[in-house]
Each structure stands twice: as structure tokens, then as C-alpha cells.
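Q:
Just now I want nothing more than another pair of eyes on a protein record. Here is the record:
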Amino acid sequence: MLNEKTLKDSLGQGALLPVYLVCGDDIYLKKQALDRIISATVSPDDDMNLVKYNFGVSLQEVYDELNGFPVMSDKKCVVLSEFDIEKSAQSEVDSLLEIVSDPNDTSVFVLYFGNSELDLKKSKRVKSLVSAVQKAGGEVVCLNHKSADELARWLCSLFDRSGR
């Protein structure tokens, strides 16, 4: 399981994984992680190789996009946001697990839970998703609120870097 620092280090070394599951309770850190993964995968002005879907899209469409070739690039990034794993039909969950289990070398698939929290410890469906992500060579990026001490250290480092 990756945190903010290990994700940053991994992406800084150019190690892109085929699948990322971004979750946790800190909305800001999750959005920042999503932006980092996207930036590591495609250039900022590359609209053709960045595809974002919201919950409700046909999973067949997501599958087709993941298995299509990138346009004038090595990789494409496909983001599926806010998939409601607990309320979806079991057939939809099974389809998602199948998509995650068979990653494509030319795509990075990001499952992004920006506005919702996943129960990584109790939910059977979430556990099966985490397992599928990890078996496919991907990783879970879990970003929770920082403690008061961590926030204080982070703010101090920001002030030190700004020269104040």
C-alpha cells in the first residue's frame, strides 16, 4: 500500500504501475495523487491519451478504452471515478474485477474514490478489488488525514522551502 511519500518517490523514479486504486479520507491528498499519476503518464496538453469516466459509464466502454492504443504516445491514462462498489450489481463488480485483473501494457488505469471512502478492512467487495489490483501488479494509494504533528512538520517544511 502506497502513501503520499512512497507514491511520489515511485513516480519520481519513473515506475508507473498498470493499476492504481486511490482512496482514503483526505480529499485534497487524493486529488493531488490523481494529478501526480496523470502527470507521470501523459503530458499536460495530451487530451487524446487522458480519458476520464464517472460512475455510471458502461464498463465495456472503459475496457475498450484501456485496450485501445495510445495516440502518438507510449501510454494512456484512463480514470474511473466514484464507482459505487457497495451499491452496484454483483455483475458490475465482477466486470470491474475482470478489467482490473487484465491490465494492458500501454494503459494506466486509475480507480479514483475522491468523494467517497472505502472500507478496506470490512467490505468483502473492496477486499476483492484490492486483491485484484495487487495481483495485476498495481497498488492501493491510501491517503488519510494527517495528524496534528504531521501537519505541523509539513507546514514547517513549506515555510523552510519558501525561505521565510
